[in-house]
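Data card: per-record layout.
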Amino acid sequence: MEESPQILNSEELARYSRHILLEEIGVSGQELLKQSQALVIGAGGLGSPAAMYLAAAGVGRIGIADFDKVELHNLQRQLLHGTGDVDREKTHSAKERLQDINPHTEIEIHDAGITPENAMNLFSKYDVIVDGSDNFSTRYLNNDASFLAGKPLIYGSIFKFEGQVSVFNNAGGSPCYRCLFPDPPPPGTVPNCGEAGVLGALCGIVGSMQALEAIKLIADFGESLAGSLLVVDTLSMRTRKLSIKKDPQCPLCGESPTINDISEESYEFSCETEPKTATKTVDSFPLEIDVSEAKRTLDKGSVAALLDVREPYECAIGSIEGSTNIPMNAIPQNLESISKEGALLIYCHHGGRSMQVTHFLRQNGFENAVNIAGGIDAWSAEIDSSIQRY
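The structure for this 390-residue chain is written out next.
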């Protein structure tokens, strides 16, 4: 009887011994990792820790897709690159670093990045896609291409001190990114990290979680985040796992899909944060108030409306009584339903999204738009503790 060929050599068995000691992984799981292929999109804040841990874990082949060059301000969070790599192509410095971490891992670079023209071909060559992109057009492209290619997508995103992780397009009818965010946010409502700032250590947390989800899928152990969204708030060090349901009306994975070929879909979303036009505003309403002032305004009995711009799954956790929910990305389509009479008090989770919506509304003639600083989290902490914090 012939023995099956040994997949791991003696040096690899020693290198991965701490993995192999874990009952959930063992030799068989480590062999699955060696035989697997993962594509990491973006060699930046999220892609750096994700790729480094995938290489260290023994993934057999890792693709790195990025068209950018290393800049000095990247080094605060993009640990694939060093000071000497400034002005180099990110894919090249990433390949050197990953091969140094694990010479047994094959590194393939795709220095054109991900485009509608190459996405389907690239995705077909890998088992799992790790999305480390930092813009909405690429996120929607990654989601659509991974679904159409039948590949699971490990999603991660960060904003200031908050991170999110999920698994989309996994087998078993799990939801896709469009089920959670059907449309990109309107232009001028979401700042990029160069405008809002980003905490470097948070990139390490979220990117490592993405690597962990990929490893679990590849080695077939544990519970996947498919159908869930993990939210990490590093200011309070609270985490919450929220349920995501498949949307029957989703244009990609729903019952009557309209997106069947990514070449037919436009991915050139505008995410500029500079206002297109400057609309004159008056000082009758402040741009922002704290939760105590918001409570006083509502208690006065004066004309005031509460606008909750969070996603529906967040509203299900709790909301301020009397609120109207219009998610941030649906604001432009619902301007006619928003009142211009009295104070329009706008809130989200922590006040970031709502401030962007406040600016957007003021640029479009809503001089009564007022942001509630700290969002529903501050309201729960200072006004109504019965509202669940998350």
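Known properties of this structure: The first strand starts at residue 37 and ends at 41. The CA atoms of residues 25 and 95 lie 26 Å apart.

See the next section for split statistics.
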